[in-house]
Description:
Blueprint: H1 2-29, H2 34-39, H3 45-54, H4 61-73, H5 87-122, H6 127-141, H7 144-161, H8 186-193, H9 196-233, H10 236-243, H11 248-276, H12 280-285, H13 291-300, H14 304-332
Helix pairs in contact: 1-14, 5-6, 5-9, 5-11, 5-14, 6-9, 7-9, 8-9, 9-11, 10-11, 11-14, 13-14
Amino acid sequence: MTSFIAARTLRFIAVLLTICVLSFLFLHLIPGNPIQIMLGEHATRSDIQRLTHELRLDRPWYEQLGAYLWQVAHGNLGRSLADNEPVSAKLAQHFPATIELTVAAMIFAVLVGIPAGIFAALTHRSALDTLISIAVLLGVSVPVFWLGWMMLYAFAYEPSRAGMDLFPIGGRLSLRYAVEPRTQFVILDTMLAGDWAALGDALRHLVLPAITLGTIPLAIIAKMTRASMLDVLSMDYVRTARAKGLGMWAVTVRHSLRNAFIPILTVIGLQTGLLLGGAVLTEHIFAWPGVGRLAFEAISNRDSPLVNGSILLFAATFVLVNLAIDVAYAMLDPRIRYT
């Protein structure tokens, strides 16, 4: 296991280095002057030249790339061109919101998707199986931006017009609550503060974006669970367990689901890594201050240090999640050994 983790660490460094170079070159090739965007259309030529020189953007691209890689190697992601704030500080401020939303979305997807897939497999070729398959197809097909707006309209906007405060339109916490941001995780901060009313408000803010973001992972998890369970349910040891008189719960969970869980876990890990990479559309629709929304604004402003930092964070998160899933394989299946 030690050699496996060491090899994956080297691969992790190589992936980050490659992404650093590619993202820097890609942003460098995009037409447009970020200094012009920063200063506005009324900026004078002398102001643009002065700020370009101060930020060392007038140097050749290979010198800029070398300086950037040297910065990153020393843990410095640079400063945002928009407000001169450290990129690492901005990412640390916004990433907890993305983690909070991703965890809530994946909890919803797993708690609904796995049972749905199990019921579909146990009732193979029945009306329930067909209904679940249709729901899965709809879940994968419905665009996130359309679903988000419909959720807002049906459960936030229309109830507010009728005088019901069912769900908030956006944000993480209502303005009437003042909670000290100790960890930047609103749910955890409200619990540490002992403000249970604020905790309830934070959970209400989380419901609609979590359901919107978790719909596609839910459908994929349900589909994979159904397929994996159908393979396992046809195995000899499952028929033997039934012949011994074991109950439905023992056969389904202890024998079938446990052996079918590795491909399901793979899907859960991939979807978690993708969502942690920033749910741009969902965060934009629900005014959720996560890294996806931050990266979208950085791209709009040609804020290259912030864009590069966001891409590095996305890549590192995805690789680490996949490493955790690989380690979990060995814990779930004793036949898997990493050398």
